[in-house]
From TrEMBL:
Pfam families found in the cross-reference section: MerR_1
Keyword annotations: DNA-binding
Name used for this protein in its record: MerR family transcriptional regulator
Domain HTH merR-type: 3-72
GO molecular function annotations of the record: DNA binding; DNA-binding transcription factor activity
InterPro entries: DNA-bd_dom_put_sf (IPR009061), MerR-type_HTH_dom (IPR000551), MerR_fam (IPR047057)
Keyword DNA-binding: yes
Amino acid sequence: MKMYRIGELAKLSRVSPRTIDYYTKLGLIGPEARSDKNYRFYSDETFARLKRIELLKKEKYTLEEIKEKLKHWDKINPDEGVADKLTSIQHHMHQLEKEVKELGPMIEQMKPKQAKHLYSMLTPQSAAVIEALLILLNKGPLL
């Protein structure tokens, strides 16, 4: 397993060493080991976790919300691959929610026949996802 000192991790992940220190103090990440001279060493798993944190920050999650999500994902499965997939799915869901919110007013202005035609043009999977998002946003089903 590759181990990184804080400067190497900072350069690799494109965040400052101060940010890594801050995330460590908050408990978002942690060093895997320390050297005899008390240098902190971080693993590839920490690098992956740092990437997830930065992605969630771009999605406007607070650090406290990110910490809760990471704790939840760690409870589900400590495997990094699963956590990466969850992060990716959550990112896509957030994007879809934004798009549905933008489309909402247009869909509401459609006549029932137009909405039915639109609905028939969508694949069943796409329609189900859109309908589920509309319900989650309290907009009700398409038809």
